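Person: At home tonight, work slowly through the protein below, taking as long as you need, and write a paragraph about the fold.
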Amino acid sequence: MNIQIIVAAHKPYWMPEDSLYVPLFIGSVGKPSIPGFLRDDVADQISARNPGFCELTGLYWAWKNLEVDYIGMAHYRRYFAARLPLFGKSRIAGRKTIEHALRKADVILPKKRHYVIETNYSHYAHAHHERDLILIKEILLERYPEYMEAWERVMDKTSGHRFNIFVMKKPLLDAYLTWLLDILFELELRLDISEYKGIDKRVFGLVSERLLDIWIEHNKIEYTELPVIALESQHWPKKIFRFLKRRYARR
């Protein structure tokens, strides 16, 4: 299979040796190159949007510039994992694992993240700014009203596919990104983020994680899932504390 998985990174970092993976320096416009990394600011690109769009600038570059049958995205600290009981970097999914998964479906997604006490909507609203979702819903109503049923179902669920990690057959990626970027570029025009701070400035990348499941559900896209491995500590106690603090502070 002709597959390329870009590994989005904003700094020098260890990369898998497997040729399946393509190290890509995202948000590279105006910055010195990283040896061994491709850049997302050449040819057809949106690299300058990286502060708000995050890894999507790398995905856009891959979509427009890679001639392959399947395109995937991983992060420099987060990858699909092999199911075998291995440890650390040796657990990163290799070509055999990815090809085996793609024989089951044309899309690979990460195992769902479960929130238990939160819906997808309330989790985002408590962690970030609810206005982001209100505007997204308005845009969907105007441009893609047929997606509203999927919006309601997905936003009311307590689990979802996160991280913007996936592998897709190219025609499906064409359809998904055409739809997604039409929404995000319109949101960019309507949303004032001048007072947003910290991670909230990454709003377009953050909302895209929620929109993926809406597109998958509405179009009844068949997919298979793989576990995800993180190469660095996730600091779960701190994350949980910060989330609860934000949740109750914004009530």
Notes: The first strand starts at residue 3 and ends at 9. The mean pLDDT is 93. The chain is about 40% helix and 15% strand.
